[in-house]
Amino acid sequence: MSLNECNYDSNISSKGVQIAEYLVSIVNGDLESVVAFYNENGYIKDALTLFYEPEESFGEDFCLDDKLQKKINEIAEYDYFYTPMYLACINNHIDIVKFFVEVAQISVNEEPISESSLNPLQGAVAYSNIEIAKFLISKGADVNAQNLWGTNPLQLALDYNNVELALLLLDLGADPSLESQEGSCVTFAQILDNKDILQKIQQKLLENLEKATINNHSETVQDLLKLIEQLQNDC
User: Fold this and answer.
1) Quick check: 7 pLDDT over 70?
2) What separation in angstroms does the CA of 208 have from each of 29, 190, 227?
3) What is the helix, strand, coil percentage profile of the chain, to 5?
4) Residue ranges of domains in the chain, CATH in brackets
5) CB atoms < 10 A from the CB of 103, how many?
6) Which helix (H) or strand (E) segment is 184 a member of?
7) Residue percentage of the chain with pLDDT more than 70
8) How many CB atoms lie within 10 A of CB 131?
9) CB count in 10 Å sphere of residue 208
10) CB atoms < 10 A from the CB of 24, how many?
11) 3: pLDDT confidence band, cut at 50, 70 and 90?
12) What's the chain's average pLDDT?
């Protein structure tokens, strides 16, 4: 459908176009436009999700021009449930992330719209955006946050071969005993096969074992012993 055929007359339709342009501004790193939109509309967490069923969100006659629709399709290629904060994190726009956190007061532990999606820190780690990950952690991001499938920041750093981020997360309290449906952090570390990471994980597991033993958490002790044994040949 061409631009002239699109219904831009109603306020709700115009708002849809404005939201689409806002999402593109986030992905492009256009802080000025993001700030302008926020000052007028606030933070719309489900901005991208609105385009999953745009007719329901903006009216039956709503459409975007071809160029803008293509941009939205690209942004939502893998998921319509990305939040604006998440989009800023995965596209490595730290100035926009800082604006959302420090001005808009969006939590660094913002819950994803879908339980199977990733949160801001997980997104930054998955895309190896180290400075954003450091910023989020400095503001209190949970280094052990897990989604519905158990996916966590350390697993993502290991899975994407990011040694620097994995070591950083371990230094800042990431728990190497966490597991997801795809496997344990220990298994991902063995696949990566970096001696520094393996040794640090072993050290963390031994520390956790000592705490679990003192607190008489027998089930945890058994689980940790299995992971330590799994690592022995690699360290």
Assistant:
1) no
2) 41, 19, 11
3) 60, 0, 40
4) 12-142 (1.25.40.20), 157-234 (no CATH)
5) 12
6) strand 183-184
7) 94
8) 11
9) 20
10) 18
11) very low
12) 92
